[in-house]
Specification:
single chain, 3 helices, 71% helix, elongated
């Protein structure tokens, strides 16, 4: 066993002993600290989920239609600006 391994093992033993001796180190789950979320919390979460879903769908539709838009406007090299204009206009 080399010196580094001995030092690491000794440090781990000291840390484990200190954690076991500390009465404030309670790692058991406390069932009294559970928080009940109200209807407002769940409404906000549902709204964020719906917004994220709609944004993803809109991005997918825009990416699919982008070649047609660029072809109709004869501006294939400026396709990035079309997506930005669509997102900014909504």
């Amino acid at each position: 066993m080399d010196k580094c391994t001995e030092i690491d093992a000794a440090t781990a033993t000291v840390q484990r002993t200190a954690l076991d001796a500390d009465p404030t180190n309670d790692t058991s789950p406390d069932t009294n600290d559970q928080q009940n979320y109200g209807w407002r919390f769940w409404l906000v979460i549902a709204s964020l989920c719906a917004t994220s879903l709609l944004t993803a769908v809109e991005g997918t539709v825009t990416a699919t239609a982008l070649p047609t838009i660029a072809r109709n406007l004869d501006s294939r090299e400026l396709y990035v600006w079309f997506v930005n204009a669509i997102f900014l206009s909504r």
